[in-house]
Structure formats: C-alpha cells, structure tokens
Amino acid sequence: MDNELLLLSVEYSSEYGKAVAKLYDPKNGSIVLWYDNKGHRPYLLTDITPEVIVSDYAQVIQHRGFDHLELVEKYDPLRDRNILMTKVIATDPLSIGRGRNAIRDILPRTWESRIKYHLCYIYDTGLIPGMWYKLVNGNLRLADVEIPSNIAKLVEKLYRDPKTRERAVHWAKLLHAPIPDIRRIAIDIEVYTPIRDRIPNPREAKYQVIAIALASSDGVRKVMLLRRPEAGEEVSRLSEGIDLEYYDDERTMLKKVFEIINEYPLILTFNGDNFDMNYLWHRARLLGLSDKEIPISIVYTGQIGQVRARIDPGVHVDLYHFFNNHAMQVYAFKSRYRETKTLDTIAQALLGIGKIKLTKNVTELSYAELARYCYRDAELTLKLTLFDNSIVLRLMILLMRISKLPLDDLVRTGISQWIKNMLYFEHRKMNWLIPEPIDIKRLKGSTKTKAIIKGKKYLGAIVIDPLPGVFFNVMVVDFASLYPSVIKKWNISYETLNCPHNECRSNKIPGTPHWICTRHRGITSELISFLRDFRIEIYKPLSKSPELDKVDRESYEVIQQALKVFINASYGVFGHEKFPLYCPPAAECTTALGRYAITKTLRKAHELGIDVLYGDTDSLFLWSPSPDRLDELLKWSREILGIDLDVDKVYKFVAFSGRKKNYLGVTVEGILDIKGLVGKKRHVPEFIKDLFLQVSNYMSKVSSLGDLMEVKRIIHEIAKDSYMKLKKRKYTLSELAFRVALTKDPEDYIKSTPQHVKAAKLLERYGIKLRAGDIVSFVKVRGGIGVKPVQLARIDEIDEEKYLPHIETTFRQILEAMGVDFNEILGKRFLESQLF
DNA sequence: GCGGACTGCTTACCT
DNA sequence: ACAGGTAAGCAGTCCGCG
User: Fold this and answer.
1) What is the mean pLDDT of residues A562-582?
2) What is the pLDDT of residues A184-201, one digit of tens each?
C-alpha cells in the first residue's frame, strides 16, 4: 500500500473553479487535495442541434457562463437506439442550473442538467469514493486490489461469460479493497444561554461558546473552556484523564479549535450541521474572524431549514444524519434504536453508555462539571465510530464504494440517493443517456393491478390465511431475497419493461399485461444481480463459515450487511415517486412475480402432500414435512421455478391466533419468536407487556399438548392477578402509560384527534411542546377527554375499566391459538363480580 | 338526543 | 423522501327511532 491514498470525497471548489478530490493519506493521517487537471467542465445535454441553438436560442451562447457546444452520441435506453445530442458546456455549475437565466431554463428540453457537478465529475472520471488511488504523473490512478483466492474461485464459478466475469471481478475488488481506520476527531460545543432549556439559535450566535470538547482516535481528550468567574475553581485535568484548557478570549479559543480541525481528515459531530458547526461559523464571523480563518462553510441545501456545514480541508461527518437513516436502523443495526434518535438513546443502545444527566443548566455548572458533560458528548460521538472494531466507519466506506457517493453525501442522504447514484454512475460508464422521469412515465405506462390498501398504486404480496391452533414441528421455508431474485431472473429494469420491440411483446409477466425485453439485459436487473449474488452466494455463507477466522468472518459480515442495505431497497425505489428512475409498472411486475412464485410453490406443496399452515410474501410454514418431500419441494423451486428456496427456521411448535402476521413460535434451539402480537407492541402499557412476558416465558418451555393446558391455567392466574392489582391501584402511572409516537406536529392532525394527540395538546398548555417523532406517554382517566399525559395525571384518576379490553386482547391472541375462548378463562361475569 | 353500524384515520407491525 | 399488507383502537358520521 505504498503511497496509496483513499478517496474520501469529491467537491466543487468555487475558489479554483474546478473539481477537487479529498484523499486520505494513512501514512501521516492527513488529507491530500487533488485538483482536476483535465479542464473538466459542467454541462448538460439537449436534443436541440447546435445550429438551432445558435439560431433560435442565442441566449445560451450569450450566457456569461457559456463555454462551447459539442455533438455527442449517446445510447438512449428507453428507445433502444443511439442518438446524437448536443452537449452544452459551461464554465461553472451555476450557469448550467442555478439561479435566474440558467442555461437549463433557456432550452425547452434538457437531460442530465440536474445532476450535481461533483457527482457528474465522479461519473465522467470513474473515480470511486472509498477506493485507493495512486498519484502517477499528477494523475489519480486506481490502485490494484488483490482478491483472496477463495473469493476469486467463487466468482469464477458463478460467472462463466467473460464479460460478466470481468464486471464481477471489478465488484469483488470494490468489496475487498482494504479498509483503513481513518484518523478522526469528534467535536462538541456548549453555548452560554440565559434561559434554561432554550437551545441557542446558531444563525444569531448571540451567546458565547463556553466549552469545546475534542475526542480523537489518536488520543486527544481535551476540553477548551472560556474563563467565567462564576464557574468556580480551575482544574487542569479531570480524573478521567481529560485535559482542560482555559481561555480569556473566546476569539482565541475558536482560532485554536480551527487549527485543530485543520489537522484532521475526518471531523465527527452529532448534529453538527444544524448546531455545533453552524454555531461556530456564525460565532466566528461575529467575532471578526475572516472566511480564510474559518475552516467551515455553511451550505443551504434546497430544502427549507436544511443546513450543511462543510469543512475544509477535511470531511465533516455528521453522525446524526447517518444514524437517522432508516435503512441503517432497520438492516444494519436491527432496530436497536428505533424510537428516538438522540445521541443519548443511540449511544445507550449501541455503546451501553449515555449522556451525562444534568440537573442544572449548562451555564450553572462548574468548570469540571461542564467539561465532563461536554466531553462525554464528544466521546460518545467518537465511540459511535469506534465500537465493534470501527464497524460504522467500515460500513460507510463500503457503502461509498457501492454507491459511488462522497462520504459527506453518503452520510447525509438515504438509500434512494445511494441507489440513484450507483445507477447514474453505471449509465455514464456505458455512455447511456440518463433518462428523465417524464420520459419513463410516458413510455412505460401506468400500473394495471389494484392494490388492496386504498391509496396504494399496485397489488403487493400475498399473505396466506393461517390455520388457527398450535402445531408441533413446523418448518419455515423462504425464498432467499425474493424480489431481487425475481428482478434478476425475469430481467426487470425500467428499460426492459414494455420495451419498444414487437417480438418481446409475447414475453408477458404473469398477472400483468406488461412484457419484458428478450434482446437486452436490463441495467438494474444486472446490477441488482451482482449485489444479490455476492451477498447470497459468497459473503453471507462466508460470514457464517466456521472454517474462517473471526477477523475474516467479521469483515465478510460487514460486506454482507452493506450489500443487504442496497438489495433490500432495490425493488421499493422503483415504486417510489420521488426516485428519479421511478417506474411503478416495474415494481408491479416484481410483486406480481413474487405472488407467482409463492402460489406456484404452495400448489406444489399441496401436490407433494405437504400441509401448508401459513405464508407471507416469501415464506411458507410447513407442518411436519417428511424430509424427502421437503427436499423435493426445495429442488423443484430451484430447478423449475429458478429461485432458491431454503429452510429458514424450524419450530418446535407454532401457535397461530388465526390472524395474519400474528403468531408465536419456539424454535428447536428454544428461541421464542413472537410476531405481531399486541403484547409485544411498543405502545402498550408496561404492565401489559409484563403480563405478556410472563405468559411468553411459560410458552417457550412448552413441549407437549399437556404443557399447553398448564399454560391455560397460568394465564387464568396471571389475568386474575392483574385485575386485582389494577383494582387496588398497585400499578404505577408509568406502568399504565401508553407510549404512542406523533408522526406529525400536534396541530397538523386535521382529520381526527387521536388520544395521544389530545394528551400532547394538554401538555402544550403547560409549556411542554411535543413535535413529530416525539413519543407521548398518556394514561386513561375518568372524566374530561378520557386521557391525560402521565406528567399531569394522578393515580386516583385512572379509569381501570378502560384497561380491561387491552388485557383481554393481549391474552385473547394467545388463547385463540390454543383453541380457548377468552371468556372461558375469565368470563365477563367474573369481571363484573370481582371488579365492579 | 342516543346508540349501533359503519367508514376512515392513525399507529405499529410483517415481509 | 424504498414498497404493499394486516391488526387494532379510536374518531367521526350516518341512520333509525313516534
């Protein structure tokens, strides 16, 4: 790895008027800047010929940013033909498409004119963020990557066609290039505020920065403090080994922190875009520092209120955005921090430590207290990238390589941007014209199936009605990555769907009137195939292989996770109207084929005499299938259907309540698996969850029908007990609280006012304002509007009767699975006699 | 004016 | 700013009722 540099980011330097690459040099842990040296310029494409531009659109030529015109040939994937287009080249990105009179707005039709310049530069140069480069004669050259022999063999086996194999090898290199542990520093600031609980406005930056904490991967543990007489005694070092530096002058302190920022390739913050970096920039300006002295620049993105703090020469990684990415929460971190998204909750979930709890305002803290508090935040921010062998940073680098996005863009955008960029990169690589959404819409038509849910665009998956009851020895088989597999096998892509060739029209997708191209391989189909194959055939098995050592298994696991993020969203984006390659009929075909696969398999199972108890989208629950027949079914699926069907789980028993997406099972390993039962839902009161947990524990020990009878008795006991406790007010308010999330701000509920919103509005009268995303804790009370937020309720106001139906449904779901009526266990009469 | 039947809204979940 | 399908509880409305 001599002299190799890792590409972290590509940006447009308005100072130099050209693209600049930011590369990481692991030798000294610093940033190397590289400026474009080929005179690459921003441009757009149009179908207007140069002659007509000159004659009819002279404003283009006269535009202050106009450079020149070129005629280029492009492949138009929607019409399957090569076309000539005019490339209008400008001197700067703004002239192409920002502000009044941009060239984009002069011409009637343009293509590729909304692509950010720095991304356009990546597509044209083929630079891959996250990869290693060498500086050769002033140019960046991709460093070669050695693929381990076991992987190379697998790739060779999977891909026979030489051209495809070459592409596969390229992907393998992306995934296998070494990942360095990048030197980084986390920053957190505290600001003086005269009013308690009021967050200072960074745009005004009216108050002093009183503390700046720094925690770095190379051992910096420091807090810079502004001298304030009221903050008590000056300590130079905290017992935890944190150095404290005192400054009389805020301006000097900021200059010092900027010097430190300048030295690091990666600057980590938690919400630094909106607060810390934003505040520092405005404050530094207010204190008279010049732009040259401030390594931060504030970029207002298109969206209102969305601010981005750029740092030079390093890269600013705001972890708040990354950890709020839905895909990361669901796939990579298994919903370990689903509800709230503060530094405290995320750190608590992933690191096991939270923020320091304050009882006073930061302004009232002593130097030591303030430093400790502030440092903890910086430390947590740093540790979020250090835990599990820097898994978060490793994941980011892999995601950069797959998406081709610079690190700063990657951490701030969601999966649809990642997939978009990956596909755009591929289009440009093959000299394909990137289609405009309107053209896809016009040429591909609309969806033809009817969704079950009102307001949805097309029919989705099938859920088989479960047979209520308890079943022993249940085997769950499922298709490995059903939708991506379908997309691969049936060549689904926006351009292959309803393609312009007459001979393809008969290649219908079952259950739809759509057809798929037989001439060409679809671009999205091929790309998703690679990601799918690499995950399913290579990295997932290897990550579990006992023959490999722990370090290898772990690194394969990260690769597997990174691929999963893309694969799992690969179908959904085509049904998402904001996705620039939005193509709902393509998504419709994918689900149609998913239904086709599951129904065919269901039929085959029947033929083989296997009882199917339940199924959802891509899975079937088989009741005690004989090994021969099971094997035959799996083989049939692979050979005839062409999709891998595998055994996913084996249950000792499963209890189906008769409702869809609602069952409880215990695996042969003794793991309790609960799906969709209310007792598990986040919002139900703690005391009900606890009752449910008690029953679940007994359930997990069940191994015979006799045991089930015992469970019935226990449910009776637990329920009776709970009624008594409820009546005697033995539960605390907190145990009785429902915890429901606001999906919008309270005032935005127009059509109806749900209970949690009523509670939130009551709270508002006491000056506690809840917003979208916050969780409202409320209890049910007698009189008034029937609910009160826990903060305002008293235990004697509780309306016990309103809790009974909730206890009932919780147990009913379990009891109905056992074929027992709830009233049989605890009849209504019992309740009336006992309770009221 | 009141209650049951119904629809619609909202949330949390499943794949 | 990935998708659709399902369960549950409550809000709001309609309708019939001398």
Assistant:
1) 94
2) 999 999 999 887 777 899
Strand B interface, A 453-472, C-beta < 7 A: 454, 461
Spanning CA of A712 to C1' of C6, the rounded length in angstroms is 27
Q: pLDDT category, A329, cuts 50, 70, 90?
A: confident
Phi, psi of A772 (to 5 degrees): -50, 130
The protein residue nearest C10 (Cα–C1') is A754
* Closest to A693 (Cα-Cα) out of A708, A678, A709: A678
Q: Using the structure, give the distance in angstroms from the CA atom of A35 to the C1' atom of C18, rounded to a whole number.
A: 90
- Output phi, psi for A370, to 5 deg: -60, -45
- CA A674 to C1' B14 (Å) is 11
Is A828 (CB) below 7 Å from strand B?
A: no
Dist. CA A813–CA A811, nearest whole Å: 5
- ∠ CA A115-A94-A50 to the nearest 5 degrees? 75
pLDDT at residue number A527: 96
**What is the pTM (predicted TM-score) of this model?**
0.94
Q: Which residue is nearest to nucleotide B12 (CA to C1')?
A: A681
Provide the CA A501 to C1' B5 distance, Å, integer: 54
Tell me the Cα Rg of chain A: 30
Beta bridge partners of A68: A89
Phi, psi for A472 (deg, rounded to 5):
-90, 150
Which nucleotide's C1' is closest to A325 (Cα)? Answer: C1
Q: Is residue A830 over pLDDT 70?
A: no
Rounded CA separation A291/A53 (Å): 40
Nucleotides of C under 7 A from a protein CB: 1-12
**A836 has a pLDDT exceeding 60:** no
The model's pLDDT over A435-477, given as tens digits with 9 standing for 90+, comes to: 999 999 999 999 999 999 999 999 999 999 999 999 999 999 9
DSSP 3-state of A507: coil
Q: If you ran DSSP here, which 8-state letter would residue A267 be given?
A: E
Phi first, then psi, for residue A157 (nearest 5°) are -70, -40
Measured CA A312 to C1' C16 distance, in angstroms: 74
Beta bridge partners of A245: A224
* Phi, psi of A588, deg, nearest 5: -60, -40
Give the Cα separation of A139 and A608 in Å (integer): 63
pLDDT digits (tens, 9 = 90+) for A727-746: 888 899 999 999 999 999 99
